[in-house]
């Protein structure tokens, strides 16, 4: 798919941008002509490349405030500016809330809520001094807007992200726009850990109205739109990227004709 947005000359930081959804986001911004800097605790298995261009990788634990400040300082020292941030780093393993430790819950909230706030604070400090300001996109999740059994702390943190966006959009306007992409299920190299083999992945995809899981680049294009001049009047918003969501369970359980009128 041709990229019509041109971000040539802009500098973008994608946290967790070396694998999975993050790598897809990085590739889309490379396609749009941006200089892309990725960060993660460990590099990916291969450099992130697209359109004959390569994203730069810098190591950073985004939960560490001092490391985040050093990261942003390094980007500004090298490129002279920071125009866009995509806060993608996050995630959580399956763990029942009743038995997960206090330390486990704390680390999940730290990674998925506090770390994006730290990165955003550091980026905002730079963007407020730039004539053209900047934009921040949070990668949120449908887990923050529906029950998230087995990842309750993660879902709560993602709900917090979307609340945070609405507040920061007011505090940091007009120089900085901030929005979130509420992401559904995505097909990555780790999908088998969540859904099983290819048959399981296909079966899960069939439950989505669009009939499949998203590709990482599709999430990247949502982030690109929110970062671009096309979204110049969009801030404090959320963009749903979930393929239509989930079919209500009662529709499969009901014994009446499917053409019957829906309840009011």
TrEMBL record:
Protein encoded by which gene: gdhIV_2
The record's annotation in Gene3D superfamilies points to:
NAD(P)-binding Rossmann-like Domain
Among PANTHER family, the record links this protein to:
OXIDOREDUCTASE, SHORT-CHAIN DEHYDROGENASE/REDUCTASE FAMILY (AFU_ORTHOLOGUE AFUA_5G02870), SHORT-CHAIN DEHYDROGENASE_REDUCTASE FAMILY PROTEIN
Annotated GO molecular function terms are:
glucose 1-dehydrogenase [NAD(P)+] activity
Which organism is this protein's natural source? Nocardia macrotermitis
Enzyme's top EC category: oxidoreductase
Its taxonomic placement starts with: Bacteria, Bacillati, Actinomycetota, Actinomycetes, Mycobacteriales
Q: What is this protein called?
A: Glucose 1-dehydrogenase 4
Family membership, please give it. Answer: Belongs to the short-chain dehydrogenases/reductases (SDR) family.
Q: Name one Pfam family in it.
A: adh_short_C2
Q: Indicate the secretion signal residues.
A: none
């Amino acid at each position: 798919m041709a990229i019509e947005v041109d971000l040539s000359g802009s500098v973008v930081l994608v946290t967790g941008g070396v694998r999975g959804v993050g790598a897809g986001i990085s590739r889309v911004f490379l396609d749009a002509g941006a200089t892309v800097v990725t960060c993660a605790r460990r590099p990916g298995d291969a450099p992130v490349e697209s359109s004959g261009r390569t994203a730069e990788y810098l190591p950073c634990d985004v939960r560490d405030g001092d490391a985040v400040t050093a990261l942003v300082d390094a980007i500004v020292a090298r490129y002279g500016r920071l125009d866009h941030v995509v806060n993608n780093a996050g995630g959580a393993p399956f763990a029942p809330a009743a038995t997960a430790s206090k330390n486990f819950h704390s680390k999940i909230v730290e990674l998925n809520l506090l770390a994006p706030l730290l990165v955003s604070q550091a980026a905002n400090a730079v963007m407020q001094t730039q004539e053209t300001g900047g934009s921040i996109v949070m990668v949120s999740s449908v887990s923050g807007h529906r029950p998230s059994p087995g990842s309750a702390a993660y879902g709560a943190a993602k709900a917090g992200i979307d609340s945070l966006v609405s507040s920061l959009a007011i505090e940091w306007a007009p120089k900085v726009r901030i929005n979130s992409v509420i992401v559904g299920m995505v097909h990555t190299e780790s999908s088998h850990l969540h859904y099983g083999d290819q048959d399981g992945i296909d079966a899960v995809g069939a439950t989505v109205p669009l009939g499949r899981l998203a590709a990482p680049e599709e999430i990247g294009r949502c982030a690109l739109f929110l970062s671009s001049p096309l979204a110049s009047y969009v801030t404090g918003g959320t963009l749903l990227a979930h393929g239509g969501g989930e079919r209500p369970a009662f529709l499969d359980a009901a014994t009446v004709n499917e053409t019957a009128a829906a309840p009011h």
